[in-house]
């Protein structure tokens, strides 16, 4: 049986595409595991309000009491860029930010399983997974 040139090109394209997808190790490592995003309220006596959503899911409005957390989990979409963005506020200000992004730089910084955010009087900070330190990413804006 003779393979037609068109079939050969399609097979080669599929093989190269598969190799490329599998070479994206950060995404491939996370692809089938659940990702969990945590937003922790580190205020002493303030409630942190938060509303998070992606293009597909609206997680609704949540009221996080002092020293408590709101978290959710999901799997990275294979052919879409998974992105969750949040609006947070308290009586001292507000902040909007990308709580999770499937981009390689974000995954390297935040780790590929648990993404840890912390809100306090300074603003919203993200945990640097490799150094185990929080970095202030978003200062509060006036309400």
Automatic annotation (TrEMBL):
It comes from the Eukaryota. Residues 1-28 form the signal peptide. It holds the Pfam family Self-incomp_S1. Keywords: Secreted, Self-incompatibility, Signal. One of its GO terms (biological process) is rejection of self pollen. Its main location: secreted. It is found in: Secreted. One of its GO terms (cellular component) is extracellular region. Belongs to the plant self-incompatibility (S1) protein family. This is S-protein homolog. It comes from Prunus yedoensis var. nudiflora.
């Amino acid at each position: 049986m003779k393979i037609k040139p068109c079939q050969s090109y399609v097979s080669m394209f599929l093989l190269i595409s598969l190799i490329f997808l599998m070479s994206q190790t950060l995404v491939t490592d996370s692809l089938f595991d659940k990702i969990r995003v945590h937003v922790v309220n580190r205020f002493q006596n303030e409630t942190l309000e938060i509303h998070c959503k992606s293009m597909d899911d609206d997680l609704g409005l949540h009221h996080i009491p002092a020293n408590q957390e709101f978290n959710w989990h999901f799997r990275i979409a294979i052919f879409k860029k998974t992105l969750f963005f949040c609006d947070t506020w308290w009586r001292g200000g507000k902040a909007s930010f990308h709580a999770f992004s499937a981009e390689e730089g974000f995954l390297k910084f935040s780790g590929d399983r648990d993404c840890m955010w912390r809100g306090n009087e300074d603003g919203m900070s993200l945990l640097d997974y490799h150094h185990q330190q929080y970095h202030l990413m978003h200062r509060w804006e006036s309400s």
